[in-house]
Amino acid sequence: MKESDNEQYYKRGTLAVLGVLRDIERDGTPIMVSHARGQFISHILSVDKELLVIDYGSNDYDNQVTLEMRSLAITAEMKGAKVEFNLEQLHETHFGGLPAFSTPLPSELLQIQRREYFRISAPLDPIFYCHASWPEGGKARFRLQDISLGGIGVLVEGDMPENLVCGDLWRGMRLDMGEYGELQVDGQLLHVGTRTTVSSKNETVSTPRLSFSFTSLSAAQERQLQQIIFSLERVAREKAMRFR
């Protein structure tokens, strides 16, 4: 968006900024910390009127590089909105006896309400798969039914546990999209439903369907996924033109 278009989405002043960051902290929403030499996913550990404390990343080298940076961008996806703000520098501190980053509260941030994500159906040939693990243990393979930048819908192959809980986090889901490559994501289960179709024998076939939202995508993953969606859209459009 142009700067003028963004103006309506700015939160400025201590109380407005603090309110948004406290929501991110309370919900445990992942944040993406990006700078000129890399990026990593972290969480807000603490925030008050004076100080913002961010968890260290999992890689010691990345943490040391981050301390050298003088310009950082922070992004988070929360409740259908994207939050963005910039920081000049992070400093080393400790939180709960463990190393962490600290920085003064930003003076402003962007909170942009997302529109409905464009969702496209996955192809039937070749079939795209989602490999995951059931919350109670055991491997699962789903057929990818549709995909968007916000999440996926999958069809369950075989038996499904009865105690699935909406809101649960599913980590390390692997999306196998054939020639388009693979993507490993974390998802939150939004809905357990059923897809009903009619077979060639005029019989009603019901297949369990699960809907997931992505809890976080890196900038690279989002770009990759957007390219896949664009490609699938183009293929679907070309196929539709051939059958007109």
TrEMBL record:
Organism this protein belongs to: Pantoea alhagi
Location of the Type III secretion system flagellar brake protein YcgR PilZN domain: 9-110
Residue ranges of domain PilZ in the record: 113-230
Cell location: Bacterial flagellum basal body
Protein name: Flagellar brake protein YcgR
Entry similarity comment: Belongs to the YcgR family.
BP GO annotations: bacterial-type flagellum-dependent cell motility; regulation of bacterial-type flagellum-dependent cell motility by regulation of motor speed
Gene3D superfamilies registered for this protein in UniProt: Electron Transport, Fmn-binding Protein, Chain A, predicted glycosyltransferase like domains
Lineage, opening ranks: Bacteria, Pseudomonadati, Pseudomonadota, Gammaproteobacteria, Enterobacterales
UniProt-recorded Gene Ontology molecular function terms: cyclic-di-GMP binding
Role description: Acts as a flagellar brake, regulating swimming and swarming in a bis-(3'-5') cyclic diguanylic acid (c-di-GMP)-dependent manner. Binds 1 c-di-GMP dimer per subunit. Increasing levels of c-di-GMP lead to decreased motility.
An annotated GO cellular component: bacterial-type flagellum basal body
Subunit structure, interactors included: Monomer. Interacts with the flagellar basal bodies.
